[in-house]
Fold:
Amino acid sequence: MIAKEELLKKIVGHAKEYGFVFPSSEIYDGLSATYDYGPYGAELKNSLKAYWWEAMVKMHENIVGLDAAIFMHPTTWKASGHVDAFNDPLIDNKDSKRRYRADVLIEEHQEKYRQKIAKELAKGRKRFGDSFDESQFLATNPNVIRNREKVEQIDARYKAAMDANDLAAVKELIIDLGIADPETGSKNWTDVRQFNLMFQTELGSVAGDASTIYLRPETAQGIFVNYLNVQKSARMKLPFGIAQIGKAFRNEIIARQFIFRMREFEQMEMQYFVKPGTELDHYAAWKEARMAWHKALGLGEGSYRFHDHVKLAHYANAACDIEFDFPMGFKELEGIHSRTDFDLAAHERYSGKKLQYYDPEAGESYVPYVVETSIGLDRLFLAVLSAAYQEEHLEDGSSRTVLRLPHALAPVKVAVLPLLKKDGLPEMARKVIDMLKYDHNCQYDEKDSIGKRYRRQDAIGTPYCITIDHESLEDQSVTLRERDSMKQERVGIDALSSIVADKVSMKTLLKQLP
Ligand code: GAP
Structure:
């Protein structure tokens, strides 16, 4: 087992060495919090997008896609509240000169109490065995109660401070909790200030307020302003969804932890338009559906948890995160928000255009409510990579680094390896690739020993290696090696397509969804 602190470093190194993720513009020493995806990274990203898109759009008759522009009319961001309220409270440490998000410092402090609760639970489970009653334990254990009260008190103080826009109270909370700079231990803090996260640029050649536009900080607004275009052109009836994958930009105060928090990143968002009053039922259903979608990847049942929001964003009447157990601990992977009619009603006000839906069953028009699911593609990439990365010691005394990626997501599905570079083996390997390449990403490799070639494929997560040897020429059979078990079996060439397709196709993954 690799220690968690070490895991992130190893993943960053592995991702660079094997062509998954490179620091952006590295020859100029990189640009902070910006990354480029290499050959295998681009493939993995495309597979993740396909898994999301197909689960949303292909699997739901009432969800359709959209690809809106990154630049939008600047009034969009006034209406959405981002110009006035898309801020992070930041605080500087006077000694270390390091900058932090005040809310993140507070959340990390709360996480210590949550971990204490988790430890108590583990102790209880061990002590009581099969007769352990988790809900009773949580309700009665004094240590659990004490720690939970601490978390709740902090939540309440933070919420009250933010609701009143009282940044002095946020600083006071940090001081009272004794929160120190995580890097240096210093408690010498500046005041808390708000910082707007949107990037601005100028449209055309004229500078000035009138031509200031923003790089979108979320893809959702492109969906809202197009909602009637989509509803009418695709003849959608409520409830229906619009799904979109695209870049978003945020001038994050702290952007560390590799691709977890970037300034340019990709979101996969779906806005589900529903009849007012039904939104909380749809919200609950999407919470479950999204969790099932994550778990179908097989990264570990215990790797996910819900975190219900106490401080709701300005547009939400219910919200939660799906958190994943990243190498840095449990952190937000996806947000699910019941956004009410906040956005559509605001766009009506600011644009002067009606954005109402005529409900033929109710015989009335209204502005729909919206339930949103919003996942960061780069975070999903990191979740998958960190769960897949393993260093294994093998029975023969050797070791290997293997990416146990879900088969359907692997950048290369099949590597075809002629045992020797002669005797017609390379030609036969090419024929096998020609047979498989229309359905799967294949790679040809004839360099080095077969053992070294297997290790290279393990390191990029290739589920299957096919070895062509002299016997293959005689009986049209090959050795098929599976990545995780390393088991090898002899199979006929004509059976390859169906064996491989069964395991690596997106259909197999999608069929696991409820
Ligand atoms: N439209 C709603 C929205 O944007 P959000 O919780 O701010 O909600 C949604 O963002 C998701 O986008 C997050 O759960 C996260 O996965 C991803 N995300 C947000 N900021 C990010 C960043 N700076 N770098 C990478 N991913 C980010």
